[in-house]
Amino acid sequence: AGCTAIDSAFIDVIPLPEAPLLISPADGESLVIAPIELTWEMAAEADEYYIIVDGDTIATTSLTNATFYDAVCGGSYSWFVIAHNECGDSASDVWDFYIRPCSGPSANIIEPMPDTWSSCIDQNIVIAISDSDGIEPATVRLTVNTATYIVDGTTLTWDGTYLRFIPPIDWTNGQLVTVCLDSVDDIYGNPLEGSLCWDFYIDLSPPHFWGEFPTGTVPTDIDYIGFHLEDTLSGLDTNSISAVISIGIDEYTYTVGYGIEFLGDSFWIDVSGIGFMPGDTVEVCVSATDTTDYCADNELDTCWTFFIEGCDLVAYACEDAYTV
User: Fold this and answer.
1) What count of other Cβ atoms lies within 10 Å of the Cβ of residue 65?
2) pLDDT at 12
3) Peptide bond before 214: cis, by omega within 30 degrees of 0?
4) CA distance linking residue 134 with residue 266, whole number of Å
């Protein structure tokens, strides 16, 4: 009789790995600069994973996380994970993440500019602050003459573009004001680099006037009228100086270069051609300003009067020629 042989064959079928499900960074997430931890869920049937960032394989691992070390400030990246086994590969979705800019806010002085003079008794301090991500107002610290202020909506305000300091008390004449923007961060904590500091000055007084001549009663043959002017704060604007000499209804107007001469703080006018008459009353009015940079210049407007002596009255007494 014949014999029958029976055998069995077993085939182990290995499926492709499942596609990994990404966890973090979330798609479209914005991150602070640091080594970026990439994570995903374990894929069934996967032996290992290839991690792809911007087209480059940055790691091969059997774990479900990897670290990306090459992120740069302001960079944007796409990433995905390939699950692999001996039968083939399955890829995850492609996600993107972004690295926030690393630079902090920038600040620029609007007013008053460094080393300028203001005649505003309530001169405001205005600084423009910009940052592409926005600033965090709670981080602002502004020091004005040793006092430090925070944004309170009253003394120190922020409108999204300008930081404005409104002095709680009026400035004083001749005051030096020192300002420092000590700190301000953007919404991600990036700080202002360094600090922004400067000085400005307050001038609330007009030029100083003294030493006018002549005064009192003088003879008719005067040749010069003069006075002294100076401004020790913002400085005297010589182009603003004018003098008006009034004699009755007649007026004579002089300016620097047109009748007024000067040397240092001494100013004079040659009046030899006027021809004063005995008994004249002469009024001289002088105006001048200083040279402030903010608000109107402080203006001097002052007058004095002198007199031209009159004629001597001569009387003669004669003896009566008629006798009785």
Assistant:
1) 14
2) 64
3) yes
4) 56
